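Fold this complex.
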Amino acid sequence: MPSAIDILPDWGWMALAFALGPAFGSFIGLVSLRLPVGQPIGADRSACKGCGRRLGILDLIPIASFVALGGRCRSCKAPIARRYLALEVTCALLPVWAGLVHPGPAALAGAVLGWQLVLLCLLDAEHLWLPRAATLPLVASGVAISAMAGAEAATHSLIGAAVGFASLAVIAATYRRLRGRDGLGGGDAYLLAGSGAWVGWIGIPTTLLWASLAGLSLVVAGLVVGRPIRADQRLPFGVFLAAGTWLTWLYGPLGGVTVG
Ligand SMILES: [Zn+2]
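Structure:
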């Protein structure tokens, strides 16, 4: 009996995820604008900010509509935010990256991970906010996808989630004790739980290492361009964690140890 993995050739999985990417990118753009203001995700269709014209079905086709209309509203010619185009392209390219590193169905799994990380990055970068509505699905999807590989992988994933949550909770508590204020948002612990669900507990140190390097490079970049990061400035640590999770999922824990 053919297994689910034989349904498509390796490149087919990547092509499928690539094709779905723009639609998810578009959806992520919508969620990232509506979630922070408490607007229901399923509320009525988006409208042009310039003239209030409701977007038609044709306007909602990702990338193609943007290119066809030259990036402007059909009625009032107001420029359409580049944000959507950038998200659609990013969400199409992430599965390709995943598929090149892990051919086969893993490309689609990588897409599911990548798309969620993009949303979390947006929410943290723009609002310093990692709602559980966005972090808990990361945990659940990590466990569910691991479970497809069997009970052992599912166990690794569950332990990963628990270790991820606990380790960030410990780092946050230590920081609070040393500096007398909160350095990490509570959402970061849930994000690292999601990370652990995807990379396993053994991938958590590598995720944190990547995240620290990403954070450090931002600090260095700030010094280089003459806009140093202030000591009281809050950084979107979730963005760094998301980058660390992505790289660890793709390339595995440093030291070459792999888990089921
Ligand atoms: Zn308009």
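Residues 48, 50-51, 53, 73, 75-76, 78 surround zinc ion (CB under 6 Å).
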